[in-house]
Design goal:
alpha/beta, Aspartate Aminotransferase, domain 1, Aspartate Aminotransferase, domain 2, 13 helices, 17% strand, globular, binds pyridoxal-5'-phosphate
Length: 376
Amino acid sequence: MKFEPFELERIQSKWEHVVEINLTESGVSPITLGELIDDPRSRPFLFERSLGYSQTNGTEKLRDLISSDYAGTTRDNVLVTNGGAEANFVAAWYLLHESGTRDELVVLLPNYMQLYGIWKNLGGRVKSFHLKMQGGEWVPDMEELKDAVSERTAAVAICTPNNPTGAILDESQLKEIADITYDMNAWLLSDEIYRGVELEGPKAPSAFDYSEKVMITSSLSKAYGLPGLRLGWIATSSPETAQDIWAYTDYTTICPSTLSDHLATIALGPDVRERLEKRARERVGAHWHIMKEWLDDHHDILDYVPPKAASMCFPRYDLDIKSLDLVEKLRIEKDVLVVPGSHFGMEYYLRIGFGYEEAKLREGLRRISELMRIIS
Ligand SMILES: Cc1ncc(COP(=O)(O)O)c(C=O)c1O
C-alpha cells in the first residue's frame, strides 16, 4: 500500500527551524515554564516529583479537569494522549478497526489533513465535503455531506474552529452535521483544538453537545500555548468507548509524560486556564489587525474570509502559480515559510499564521508582498 505522507507536517518539520521567518504556526507563541507556574512557592513541588510512568489514561485529577468542559461527563469519558496528534491517531485506528464493514471516513475540507492521511494509510477509504466561501463566510456544504455518507461511513470528521480557515461551525450547522451522521449510525469525530482562541464573542460551540455518538479530540497546544507538553485528549459520549480506545494507546505511547500530566493539571486549574485563554485571545486579536490591514492592502490579489478563531488566515490569491511553487519561491528567495493551500486539499490558497512574534510577522508579510507584486 502506498504511504500517504502528511504534507503539512512534513513541510513544517523540514523547514520551520531553518527559515528566518516562520509563518506556519497556527497557535500563539508558547509560554515558558516560569510563566505557567508564576508563583515561585509552587515550584519546589516540581523537583519532588518522581519521573515514573504516569497513570496510563491520564491521572484522575487531570481527567476531571478536562471532563469539566464537556457537559454530563466524568473522568471516565476522557482518555489523555500525547498531543492532539495521538488523540486523532488512536481515534482513527479504533474507529476503522471496530467499525466492521464501515471503512469510510467523511472529512470536512479544507482540514488539518492528519485524519485524512491516517485513515488512508490504515487501509480505509476517504470521502469529503467542503467549506465554501459564501456571502463572506465559510459555510459547510450539507448536500455534499448527505451525498457522501452511507452504510459504509464509520465516522464524519470535522475540525471546528477550523484549521486552516479559522471558521467556526455554528450551533445549527453542528446540529445538522450531527443529525446526518447519527442517522447513518456513524460517529461524529470533532477536532476542537482551536476552541478557546476565538477572536471575539463566547467560546465556540462544541460538537459534544449535539450528538450521542461523538468523540472530541483536543490538546493544550493552541489555546494554552503549551505544544511542547504534547498533552492531548479524547472526550467521548460513551465511557466504554474511552476505555476501549485506551487499549490502543498501550501500543502507541503507553502513557502521557508524567511531567506533562502534572503541568497540564496546573494549566487547566481554574485561574491559570482563564489566564492562558485570555493571553491567547489578546495575542490573536492584536495580530489580526496587522494581518487584516495587510490583506486589505492586497485586495487586488487576495480574497479572504476573516477567521473567527485561531491565529491563521487562509486567503485565496489570484496569481498564475500553484501554491506549492509559490511557497517554495517564498522560502528560497525570501526566507519566509507559509503553508500552501494544496496541503489542505485546496489550490491557490495560502495559510498564514499570525500568532507569533509581531516584528517577524510584519517583516514576513512585507517580503510576501514583494514577491507577489513581482509575480502579478
Ligand atoms: C487541527 C489540529 N489537530 C491536531 C493537531 C496536532 O496537535 P498537537 O500539537 O497537540 O499534537 C494540530 C496541530 O497543528 C491541528 O492543527
